[in-house]
Specification:
InterPro entries: Aminotransferase_I/II_large, Class-II_PLP-Dep_Aminotrans, PyrdxlP-dep_Trfase, PyrdxlP-dep_Trfase_major, PyrdxlP-dep_Trfase_small. The chain is of the alpha/beta class and 397 residues long. It folds into 2 domains: 135 residues, Aspartate Aminotransferase, domain 1 (Alpha-Beta Complex); 226 residues, Type I PLP-dependent aspartate aminotransferase-like (Major domain) (Aspartate Aminotransferase, domain 2), CATH 3.40.640. The chain contains 13 helices and 14 strands. It has a 7-stranded mixed beta sheet with strand order 2-10-9-8-7-3-4, with helices on both faces. It has a 3-stranded antiparallel beta sheet with strand order 11-14-13, covered by helices on one side. A hairpin with a 2-residue loop joins strand 5 and strand 6. The termini are far apart. It binds pyridoxal-5'-phosphate.
């Protein structure tokens, strides 16, 4: 029995949450039960809420410095305790958001029209960010065998060599598949990038959501050897703080980190949120046990979903429990229904907003990304609605 109650019901009504209020924009309908955008229906830990309340009671939220121990120390503590890595202040820099930092690195490493490589399926905003920066998207498809994704390293090398790639956008853990990259794989990838003068950007925002018995390995562990690389991460996912913009980078390449700061200064968006800094301290100093308990809860949600599929939906779907993230990447190819049919049935019959795989450039177009960062009861209801949707599709074939 955990001391944290992840089953607590908290309404998001009136909070303007994109998760709820944004379903019409993406799914064409209001009032859907949402399991799509990557935030959770689970409250930020009490230690963070209490720290924020105390800071709010101070009542003054003027311009704030991030270059202090209250920024560096919690980050160093968390990485030392949880990722087994001793960081140095000079290698850590604040950034406005993870995607801001990704965009800033792209701007500093490329000219319009240059090639940037991603693996597919991919995190959808990587597609947008390349378009917005007028960059050519080079796709390296992951291999899919019996529900498990893997990377063919020769394909990775060849795709880089043949396309004059300037930057590789790495996602670890990988959104949407939930894959964790091993030390050996990342060493090979870094080596290929180094040999071909490709800058390696590692988005590690999902790093804290790891299944029991799995291990996350950051490329930051390899920075002594591979310097043309940067890690970008934050607290938005781990502690459900996406609307308090805050991220940080880790790198030995301080020049590129300075480029990020320069862009923040040019665009006048570099003022750190005083509330985000308070949240950082509380989160990384006091919320490790909350994170562990949440990981257990998320794991149980995923097991529930897998069992439900195996017992009731095996004619339609299959799921391999992802190694990381709170995103279940469910394969519906067995059902024989198309992406459009499934998407429509989920919305019209199930009343569900679940992201279709096409958003993530799913090469097989036969997956949905189901966010399980929700209360068990919500997940149970969603599974019933998914079943209802497939039954409807079968009856109306
Ligand atoms: C892989 C990945 N990177 C970045 C982000 C967004 O980060 P931020 O809001 O800090 O820009 C997300 C959000 O879903 C994500 O999944």
């Amino acid at each position: 029995m955990t001391k944290f109650n992840f089953d607590e019901v908290t309404s998001r009504e009136g909070t303007y949450s994109i998760q709820y209020e944004g379903t019409e924009m993406i799914f064409g309908k209001k009032g859907l039960a949402p399991f799509w955008i990557a935030d959770m229906d689970i409250k930020t830990p009490e230690a963070i809420r209490e720290a924020l309340k105390a800071r709010i009671d101070n009542g003054i939220f003027g311009y704030t410095l991030w270059q202090t121990d209250s920024f560096y120390e919690p980050i160093k503590k968390w990485w030392s305790e949880r990722h087994n890595l001793e960081l140095h202040n000079e290698d850590i820099q604040y950034a406005t958001s993870v995607l801001f930092a990704v965009s800033a690195v792209l701007k500093s490493k490329t000219e319009p029209g240059d090639s940037v490589m991603i693996t597919v399926p991919t995190y959808n905003s990587f597609v947008g960010i390349l378009e917005e920066n007028n960059l050519k998207r080079i796709e390296c498809p992951l291999d899919l065998n019996n529900g498990e994704y893997s990377l063919d390293i020769d394909k990775f090398r060849k795709t880089i060599e043949e396309n004059n790639v300037k930057v590789y956008l790495h996602c670890n853990p990988h959104n949407p598949t939930g894959l964790i990259w091993t030390k050996e794989q990342q060493e090979e990838m870094l080596k290929i990038c180094e040999d071909n003068n490709v800058y390696f950007v590692s988005d590690e925002i999902h790093k804290d959501f790891i299944r029991p018995k799995e291990l996350f390995y950051s490329v930051a562990n390899l920075f002594d050897t591979y310097k043309n690389s940067i890690v970008i991460t934050g607290l938005g996912k781990s502690f459900n703080l996406a609307s308090l913009p805050f991220a940080y980078t880790i790198s030995k390449d301080h020049e590129t980190q300075r480029e990020i700061t320069k862009l923040m200064n040019q665009l006048h968006c570099g003022t750190v949120s005083s509330l985000a800094l308070v949240a950082l301290e509380a989160a990384y100093n006091d919320c490790g046990d909350w994170m562990d308990a949440l990981n257990d809860y998320i794991h149980d949600n995923l097991v529930y979903v897998k069992n439900y599929i195996d017992e009731n939906l095996s004619d339609y779907m299959s799921l391999e429990i992802p190694q990381a993230t709170y995103l279940a990447w469910i394969d519906f190819s067995k059902s024989g229904f198309t992406n459009d049919e499934v998407k429509k049935a989920f919305v019209e019959v199930g009343g569900l907003a679940i992201s279709p795989g096409e958003m993530y450039l799913d090469p097989t177009n036969s997956h949905v990304r189901f966010n399980v960062g929700f209360r068990r009861e919500q997940i149970e209801n969603a599974m019933k609605q998914i079943e209802k949707s497939f039954k409807h599709l079968s009856e109306n074939k």
